[in-house]
Amino acid sequence: MLKIPKIIHDDIVAHAKSGFPLEVCGILGGTAGEISVIYRMTNTDRSNEHFMMDPKEQFAVIKELRGKGLEMLAIYHSHPETPARPSEEDIRLALTPNVSYVIASLAEPERPVVNSFRISGDKVQPEPIELV
Q: Is-cis flag, bond preceding 21, omega within 30?
């Protein structure tokens, strides 16, 4: 189970809406399965179908997390027009071990959906989210 404070959940949705119609992406940090910080990242692909984080931004965030005694718990991105489930490309590119993959869907803009998954190889496991 991934615990996400409502304010961070709402920030993920706000980020997705502000980036629409392109995908947005970011990193969620914390400890023991509970998110405490969000880092909005730049989608260098500037695409509505996929994302790529800026490697320099990623490195800086990982360094900052470590400095705060936190770990990267999740990578998030948005699906501007498709459901909140991993695409084939999302699964293929889920190469970071032991993190959650959070997807925010704006397929129904008035009712955004945020889901989390654990992805290992081609195995996708839905992961419950608890808003705290």
A: yes
The residue among 50, 98, 39, 58 whose CA lies nearest residue 78 is 50
Is 3.40.630.30 the CATH classification of the domain at 2-131? Answer: no
**pLDDT score, position 90:** 96
DSSP output for 80-113: SSS-SS--HHHHHT--STT-EEEEEE-SSTTS-E
Structure tokens at 26: 């970011």
**How far apart, in whole angstroms, are the C-alpha atoms of residue 131 and residue 28?**
14
The token pair that represents 130 in the structure block:
């608890």
| Amino acid letter for position 117 | F
CA distance 108 to 24: 17
Domain boundaries, the chain: 2-131
Compute the distance between CA of residue 111 and CA of residue 102 in angstroms, rounded to an integer: 16
Residue owning tokens 């910080």: 37
Per DSSP bridges, beta strands 25-31 and 113-120 are unpaired
Q: How confident is the model over 60-81, as pLDDT tens digits?
A: 999 999 999 999 999 999 999 9
